[in-house]
Design a protein that fits this description.
Blueprint: E1 2-10, E2 15-16, E3 21-26, E4 29-35, E5 41-48, E6 51-58, E7 67-73, E8 76-79, E9 82-85, E10 88-91
Parallel strand pairs: 1-8, 1-9
Antiparallel strand pairs: 1-2, 1-5, 3-4, 3-6, 6-7, 9-10
């Protein structure tokens, strides 16, 4: 099975971003909807099927209202953090 987690960091504030809404979609279906905890982390799903998914973040930024990432999940655990500041954002495949 496949599992997925995320971590949102507000690099402008130099701190985790708590309470950020993150939704996980497969096609048009919402698979999971979570808010990040006080450390900016969220475990989105533990039993996913292989395939293409979309992560949709609603970060604490005056510029970025929504950040979407499309990922291909095959097997194992995936950790996809989002680093966001007032005028930039980036992501990577974590461990």
């Amino acid at each position: 099975m496949i599992s997925l987690s995320t971590h949102v960091l507000d690099t402008g504030a130099g701190a985790p971003a708590p309470g950020v809404l993150v939704t996980l979609h497969r096609g048009e279906r919402v698979v999971s909807e979570q808010r990040t905890d006080t450390d900016g982390r969220s475990r989105l799903a533990d039993e996913l099927e292989p395939g293409t998914y979309r992560l949709v973040f609603h970060p604490p930024s005056q510029f970025f209202r929504r950040v979407e990432l499309e990922v291909e999940l095959e097997h194992g655990h995936y950790h996809v953090p989002l680093l966001v500041s007032p005028y930039s954002c980036t992501s990577y495949r974590g461990s």
